[in-house]
Predict the 3D structure of the following.
Amino acid sequence: MDVVIYFHGFALGADGTPPLSTFVEVSGLWDADDGVTFARRARPTLVVIPRGDGKPFVNDSWPYRFPATIAQPERIIALALGKMAEARRLQSPTSPAAICKARLLLMAHSGGGLAVLQVLAKLKTPPTEIYLFDALYQNADALVGWATAALTRRGTRLWVGYLGGTASCSVELAVNLAELLAGQPAHVKARFRVEPLDGCRIDHMVVPRAYAPLLLQGGRGPMPVS
């Protein structure tokens, strides 16, 4: 089963303690109205959305951090798959006692992008796909390093969509990727994309909902949203 780890962004609301369901709604990974986001994905997929640590940080505008997930990502994945296996066996006692991870996908929105950069160094097995929704506020050398190794791995994909606030670091990543991909065939270049979203007339909070379903279904950019 594929596993998605989605790192949400900053706190929504003045008290900084919104329910996790709020971030799930923003993520675009589940539609409470029709419940079909994953029904359109061919591969069995389990999504993990950590709640994060929402305690205030001095002089820090991004209050959410994910210390447990970043420190032991493999343990979090194993725990989630174990819970899924237990749930399946409750429905059908003949179901397998364990579920193995196939692909790992990392996704992040807004301030959650930092967690993706941090967790890359902790993973024993690198992710197959990485998607950042207006989430790159930091130097992205970690992504370049991942992409360098990922070029020869089948099925690897990177998509970074950005608006004004994340433009600087995203454009820097695009330049570095262009150098890395120079001379590569078109089908390889198409798997590693950094795209501006300003022309799509899209709001920062809508980016995950607009793009996550398309990416999970195997869609490729550019994917303009009006």
Observations:
- The longest helix spans residues 73-91.
